[in-house]
Amino acid sequence: MAVAGGSGCLAKAAAVLVLVLCMARWSAAGMGVNWGTQLSHPLPASTVVRLLKDNGFDRVKLFDAEDSILGALKGSGIQVMVGIPNDMLWDLAGSTKAAERWVT
Question: Where residue 41 falls among pLDDT bands split at 50, 70, 90?
Answer without folding.
Answer: confident
